[in-house]
Description:
alpha/beta; Glutaredoxin; 2 domains; elongated; redox-active center; transport; Thioredoxin_CS; Thioredoxin domain-containing protein
Amino acid sequence: MTDSTATTEATAKNFASAVIEKSRETPVLVDFWADWCAPCRMLMPVLAALATEYSGKIQLVKVNTDKEPQLATEYGVRSLPTVKLFKAGQVVDEFMGVLPERAVREFIERYLDRPADHQIRVAVELSATGQHDEAIKLLAAALAEDPKYDKTRLALAE
């Protein structure tokens, strides 16, 4: 079932490319579901809407556990629906059951890059090459844009 352009159906054959490799570029939400699972059908539209909203920032991959039981076993799925978030080739978080849209949105947003993340990476590179003043200016600008982002504060303190 493909709900949007941000959604892919995974099988044992394409899981490595659709999930593991893709998660090295962008976070991948993997929804383990089944046709008979009523809670799965309740969660699907929420995931599909958020995948469309965050298109380009996150990928939604669906695994039908009735058709792909080996994937469910391999990833320790014990109840449906189970949603696992992959980043850099690894499972970094998960939830089971149906969550309200707000909670799913918060779950996703914890793993999305913020604009300051790019500035932090550049500042770290500048600092590593001895360009400390430029790094501090860049981090100060990032902090001004997103004053509540603790990662910027930590980078500035370092």
